[in-house]
Amino acid sequence: MKPIIALTKGRLEKQFLKFFQTLDYDVEPLLNKGRKLQVETDQFSFFFAKGVDVTTYVENGIADLGVVGGDILIEHQPDVYNLFPLPFGECRMALATKDGYIWPDQKKRIASTFTNITKEYFKNKGESVDIIKLEGSVELAPILGLADAIVDIVETGTTLKENGLVVEDEFLTFSARLIANRSTLKVKREQLVPVIEAFKKGAKET
Ligand code: PRP
């Protein structure tokens, strides 16, 4: 059976494809996949999912390997082998708010998708805040008055800029990572190790 690789949909998907094209594998079916969620190439079975779901599929052994943002691994701490960084998907975690915002004296309200990271960040600062969990477009929260600020990933900074927000503090940097299921890495070792090595070599050369 071919190695099964779970890929994160969206932004990382395009960057993964660019990286994967530098390796010596069949890539054609991935380039023309349209809206399909599963793609077979000569060497691999790929499927596409949201980042956090990639970790769930890998953790449960449905996928042998996964490509996921470091942010997801820090936030959710899945029980997988966190193998090594890949040379794309570089982001920072930032606290951001409206340009010129005057913070109120009362307890701060912070909106984020990354509630664990947010909790840890303010714990380290010795500050107690109210955390509001949102699933996306978190930039809206300070603009609409739901929160004083957000904790979110920043890649190019365009989303913050175009929505009138500014970075107050940046506190984590990460990139995409290759992850592996703990038991299939042992069971399918002969199949998976060469793939992992090829990814590692590609990552070093990029
Ligand atoms: C992420 C993040 C920011 C944006 C940052 O959102 O939540 O909104 O990317 O990227 P930038 O600095 O390059 O502008 P994503 O596009 O993944 O969608 P989401 O809003 O649904 O989380």
Task: List the keywords.
206 residues; alpha/beta; D-Maltodextrin-Binding Protein, domain 2; 9 helices; elongated; binds 1-O-pyrophosphono-5-O-phosphono-alpha-D-ribofuranose
Offer a quick outline of the entry:
The chain contains nine helices and eleven strands. With 206 residues, it is an alpha/beta fold.
Shape label: elongated
Number of helices: 9
Unreliable runs: none
Please state the average pLDDT score. 97
**Bound ions, cofactors and other small molecules, one mention each:** 1-O-pyrophosphono-5-O-phosphono-alpha-D-ribofuranose
- Give, in spatial order, the strands making up the sheet with the most strands: 2-3-1-4-11-5
Number of domains: 2
What is the H-and-E element order? Answer: EHHEEHEHEEEHEHEHEEHH
CATH class of the largest domain: Alpha Beta
Rg from C-alpha positions?
A: 19 Å
The helicity comes to 25-40%
The CATH homologous superfamily of the largest domain is called: Periplasmic binding protein-like II
Count all strands and give the number.
11
What does this structure look like?
The protein has 206 residues and is α/β, with parallel strands linked by helices. The chain folds into two domains: 4-89 and 175-205, D-Maltodextrin-Binding Protein, domain 2; 91-173, 3-Layer(aba) Sandwich (D-Maltodextrin-Binding Protein, domain 2). It is 34% helix and 29% strand. It contains nine helices and eleven strands. The protein has helices spanning 11-20, 28-31, 51-59, 70-76, 115-124, 140-144, 158-162, 184-187, 189-205, and strands spanning 4-8, 38-40, 45-49, 65-69, 81-85, 91-98, 109-112, 130-133, 149-154, 165-174, 176-180. Strands 2-3-1-4-11-5 form a six-stranded mixed sheet, sandwiched between helices. It starts with a strand and ends with a helix. Residues 11, 136-139, 152-159 line the site of 1-O-pyrophosphono-5-O-phosphono-alpha-D-ribofuranose.
